[in-house]
Every structure is written in structure tokens, then in C-alpha cells.
Design a protein that fits this description.
Blueprint (H helix, E strand, L loop, with lengths): L1 H11 L11 E4 L7 E6 L9 H15 L7 E5 L3 H13 L3 E6 L4 H9 L3 E5 L4 H15 L4 E3 L6 H18 L6 E5 L4 H13 L4 E7 L30 E3 L1 H15 L5 H14 L7 E6 L14
């Protein structure tokens, strides 16, 4: 009887039902000082933290009637949000069109094609800003064709972390979290998580990680002073800032794989490095949490692994 009920439940589930509730992984148990944990967002079904926002934006579009079966989901992406939208579009029966820089790595392009998403390549010299401007143009010119999920301005982006990621971290640290540090692309993960954590305990410090230079190799991360900011970017949530170079982030990414068995992407390496820098300034009873954004399998063609 129990087994038959289980099969009925499983039969009703889809890939959307396993988004979130990712584990909190202890990092550097062999080092003294403040405790560091990584939220294993690479275990989401499409392989990244962006599953949370993509699911929330699509569901809100359906709920409000803005996303109908005759419309195509449209957005700009550096890769991860696009993969999540394409995966959910395949599950729910929606066409998906994505604007992304033409120099995006081939793993992401191949995954998008596997999900039958249409790719509109944009000028690599304009980076993710170029993809964003192209998506906006298409949305304005073709309102009857596209549902523009607009991850850079859609409040469902940050709300998915306010209502999900932050509460999970709060419970997983048994309400003892003292510091949260993470990089920013759209800034949805950092803003939504930080806003809720500070409401739960105003003493919690939330610190953004940022690439040390406008010209960097931290895919998905933005140097906010020189790029277009999202509509929900909020510096009132910043308790400082930690800059990380591409070279140092890559070295940390290699260390996480080779020494600790965590095969994650370079942005995750940057987040962990920022968490380490922060932990070195804190007492031993402090608890620092960061985000392991995506899997290293999305970067197999990178010379980092040669």
C-alpha cells in the first residue's frame, strides 16, 4: 500500500518539483577560524542556482496571464538562466528564445540546443549587456510573440531567494548564521537572500563579491560599476565588498575539485575565495555561508582543466 502511494506521488511530480532545498556543505573543515559553508545550488535540476528564479518567473507569468501557450519565453542570459528557462519550457510545452553573447561556452550552447531553445547570438564585445539590450528590443517590437521574463527587472527573481534560499540557509544553520557573501549577476540571489536574512536577524552581515576588474573571466558575475544594473539592485544591503581576481578564483576552483571533491564553476570558486577572505577576519564562532552557483561540468572546455 505504501509503495503504491509512493508511485502515485512520484507519477505526479515533474522536474519543477525538485527545485531548491539544496544541502549546505561544510567547507575547509581542516582549517581553523570561522566556519564556512557552501549552498550546493549546482544540485538543482538544470545544474545551477538560476532554477529558482526561472521557475518563479515562469509560474508568475502563467498566473498573471502574461505567459500564454501561443507566446515564446524570451530573455537575455550568460547561460545559466537560459538553461533553466529552456528546461522548464521543454517540460511545460513553451518555446524559448534566448539572447546570449556569441562567445558563451559551447557546453551551454549544446545544452540549450538539447532543450530545443532558439539562440540569438549577440556581440561578444558587449558582453551580457549586449544580450540584455537585444532582448529588450525584441520584447518591445514583438509584444504579441514574446513573454519577456526579464530576469534583470522581474521581482520574482529576487523573491525566489527571499522566499526560498534565505529561509533554507536560516534553518540549515539553526539560526546561527552571522555572514552571507555572494557574487552578483542580476543580483537576484544576493538581494533576495540578504533582504530576508536581515529581516530574520538584523545583526547578520551581507557582503557582495565582485570581480576585481571590468575585464574579467568570472562568467555570470558583473562588475557593477561598469555594467547595467538590475532594477532591484540595492546597496543598502551591502556590509562592505570583497573583490576577487579571475586568476585567484580559478585557482580556488581547482583546489575545490582536486582537494575537496567539489567540481564547481569558476563563479563558485570566486564566492568561496571571498568567503575565505572574510572568515580570516572573523572569530571562530562566526558562520559564513556562500553560494556554489553551478557545476564544473558546464566549463569542461575551459583551459582551466587542461
Amino acid at each position: 500500500m505504501v509503495r503504491s502511494i509512493l508511485w502515485i506521488i512520484l507519477d505526479c511530480m515533474t522536474i519543477l518539483d525538485v527545485v531548491g532545498k539544496t544541502p549546505l556543505v561544510p567547507l575547509f573543515a581542516d582549517r581553523a577560524g570561522a566556519k564556512i559553508f557552501g549552498k550546493a545550488e549546482f544540485l538543482n535540476p538544470s545544474g545551477s542556482v538560476k532554477d529558482r528564479a526561472a521557475k518563479a518567473m515562469i509560474f508568475d507569468g502563467i498566473k498573471t496571464g502574461k505567459l500564454t501557450k501561443n507566446k515564446t519565453i524570451l530573455d537575455a542570459t550568460s547561460g545559466n538562466t537560459g538553461v533553466a528557462l529552456a528546461m522548464f519550457g521543454a517540460v511545460l510545452g513553451y518555446r524559448v528564445t534566448l539572447c546570449l553573447p556569441s562567445n558563451a561556452n559551447k557546453e551551454r550552447k549544446r545544452v540549450l540546443k538539447a532543450y530545443h531553445a532558439e539562440i540569438i547570438a549577440t556581440n561578444p564585445l558587449e558582453s551580457s549587456d549586449g544580450a540584455l539590450l537585444k532582448a529588450r528590443q525584441l520584447a518591445v517590437e514583438n509584444p504579441n510573440i514574446y513573454f519577456y521574463s526579464d530576469q534583470y527587472n522581474n521581482p520574482e527573481n529576487w523573491k525566489s531567494h527571499y522566499n526560498g534560499t534565505a529561509l533554507e540557509i536560516w534553518e540549515q544553520t539553526e539560526h546561527n548564521l552571522t555572514h552571507f557573501v555572494a557574487g552578483m549577476g542580476t543580483s537576484g540571489t544576493f538581494i533576495g537572500t540578504s533582504r530576508r536574512l536581515k529581516e530574520l536577524n538584523p545583526a547578520i552581515k551581507t557582503i557582495p563579491m565582485q570581480p576585481a576588474s571590468p575585464l574579467h573571466g568570472l562568467e555570470g558575475m558583473r562588475h557593477t560599476e561598469t555594467t547595467i544594473k538590475s532594477g532591484f539592485y540595492d546597496t543598502s544591503l551591502f556590509d562592505g565588498q570583497i573583490d576577487v581576481t579571475t586568476e585567484d578564483a580559478r585557482a580556488m576552483t581547482q583546489q575545490l575539485a582536486g582537494k575537496y571533491g567539489l567540481f564547481v564553476g569558476i563563479s563558485s570558486g570566486a564566492n568561496v575565495l571571498a568567503a575565505v577572505k572574510l572568515a580570516e577576519t572573523l572569530p571562530p564562532d562566526a558562520i559564513v555561508v556562500t553560494i556554489l552557483c553551478d557545476s564544473g561540468f558546464r566549463y569542461l572546455s575551459d583551459e582551466l582543466w587542461d
